[in-house]
Amino acid sequence: xxxxxxxxxxxxxxxxxxxxxxxxxxxxxxxPGGPSVTSPRIKLSDGRHLAYRESGVPKDKAKYRILFVxxxxxxxxxxLPSSQELIEELRIYFLSFDRAGYGESDPNPKxxxxxxxxxxxxxxxxxxxxxxxxxxxxxxxxxxAWSCLKYIPHRLAxxxxxxxxINYWWSSFPAKLSIETYRKQLLQDQWTLGIAHYAPRxxxxxxxxxxxxxxxxxxGNPGILSSKDLEILSQMSKAFEPQFKDKVTQQGVFESxxxxxxxxxxxxxxxxxxxxxxxPLEEGSSVHIWQGYEDRLIPFPLQRYVAKxxxxxxxxxxxxxxxxxxxNTSFSDDILRALVLxxxxxxxxxx
Length: 351
Fold this sequence. Notes:
Blueprint: H1 2-20, E1 41-43, E2 49-56, E3 64-69, H2 84-90, E4 92-97, H3 113-126, E5 133-138, H4 142-151, E6 156-162, H5 175-182, H6 187-198, H7 203-208, H8 216-219, H9 227-239, H10 242-247, H11 253-264, E7 287-292, H12 300-309, E8 313-318, H13 329-341
Parallel strand pairs: 3-4, 3-5, 5-6, 6-7, 7-8
Antiparallel strand pairs: 1-2, 2-4
Helix pairs in contact: 3-4
């Protein structure tokens, strides 16, 4: 009898443990009981919908067409705070979109680094923004931008990676440098990224359990941010519309935030250091990395290593600035000028 009770308890415990690792089904926009669709969307070749937003000058009057890729925990409603005068002077059209699972774009259970590039290409084709276009990827939006450089380089007129995410498990990183940099992260972030990479099936449980702290960024831990980051975010929070923020994860945190971590910090199917210069003969086309020296989310030593191994990338390191420097209008304008005009100051590298 005792053995039978023990077996029943064990089975029940295993069943409970399994259930805690299973995310609830997403609430698909436009489905019965799901969030409503309020944005224009395209239908992709695999049947998913991608929500988008157009801004800047009208597309038919634009000289430069830029596809903007948002970062972690935001959506198409976020964009660089560039000055309207510069946008009109340069005649820039922006196309932003909700990445899969974010905002009003359908989740993609097969989301990968590669799929992000082809979502971008299909969006560009359906919106008819031209055979070539510029891409700006910010923070976690950096890995879709890297994917574009790998899979659709022939479609690119130029790329800016702004404080782009670093994957500590890229095989070309020197093990010592990668480990040392990884261990400088808060312990809770080391655990979160390690689970995202090695045990992604446990990530939903880890991110939703309450016993231990998980992602410092998700939890709003100020210890991950520099003093200038805190200052910038305190100013931005007053201007950021609450309804936009609420829509970011409305279809479920797993298909937006958690899957982003699993893909960005998972095993990539290409080595970043094997990328070739997509513009060896094209004047005016270039690839840029913008990095804050005081960035505690994306450590500068690994970013420097990438720029050293890929010397065709123009590397801009900003002393005394953290992760969110791009929310400053002057830096945002600098990013645009460098991308479309090739005008930038020599990179500043702190010893």
